[in-house]
Specification:
four-stranded mixed sheet, about 45% strand, four-stranded antiparallel sheet, elongated, about 190 residues, mainly beta, 13 strands
Length: about 190
């Protein structure tokens, strides 16, 4: 018996040559931010949290950067936080936050002949001095308003040479000088 076996051709596609893989694009730092940049003095240390975001819109792990806070961070002033990237990220960033003096509260105000004597409670914390504003406009917007600066050791001030039969308003705030910048606290209630 004669048997004939026929084998059909089967097309086999050879595998494509494998070349070197393309390197992934590095995710860069898009933004570095502090949770707060303005504080008011309250006697407590301020430690704003740092958030670093990549160009992919996701937060970068705290393992990939180091945060260095300055000493103190309690008294009124300007403080700088240093953020140093590491591992696959590069760069050093310096962020600033400010602590402003606390608002000043009044003790009393006494009116005399063409003068007013005011006294106040010291707000606490390290300050440079006070700024006193007075005038006949209770909103302190007119040009007639006068500003006076007094030293931090003062607890009272006498405003002289006022006009008779006029109603005057007074307010005060503390300030701290840090370098060439003055940090002003909130104005007190007017007297």
């Amino acid at each position: 018996i004669q048997v004939t076996v026929t084998i059909k051709d089967t097309q086999i596609t050879p595998p494509k040559p494998v070349g070197p893989s393309k390197p992934d694009k590095k995710i860069q730092v898009k933004s570095v931010r502090l949770s707060a940049v303005k504080y008011t003095y309250n006697g407590k240390v301020k430690t704003p949290k740092v958030t670093v975001t990549g160009t992919d819109g996701k937060k970068i792990s705290t393992k990939d950067y180091k945060v260095s806070y300055p000493k103190g961070r309690k008294q009124p002033g300007i403080y700088r936080v240093k953020v140093t990237m590491r591992n696959r990220y590069q760069g050093t960033y310096t962020l600033k936050f400010k602590i402003y003096p606390k608002a000043v509260s009044w003790k009393k105000a006494q009116a005399g002949k063409k003068e007013i004597r005011v006294s106040w409670k010291k707000p606490g914390g390290s300050i440079t001095g006070y700024q006193i504003q007075y005038g006949t406009d209770k909103k302190f917007k007119k040009k007639a308003t006068t500003l006076k600066s007094v030293g931090k050791s003062k607890g009272s001030y006498r405003i002289r040479k006022l006009k008779r039969n006029k109603t005057y308003y007074v307010r005060i705030r503390a300030y701290k000088k840090s370098g060439n910048t003055k940090l002003y606290g909130a104005w007190s209630k007017r007297k």
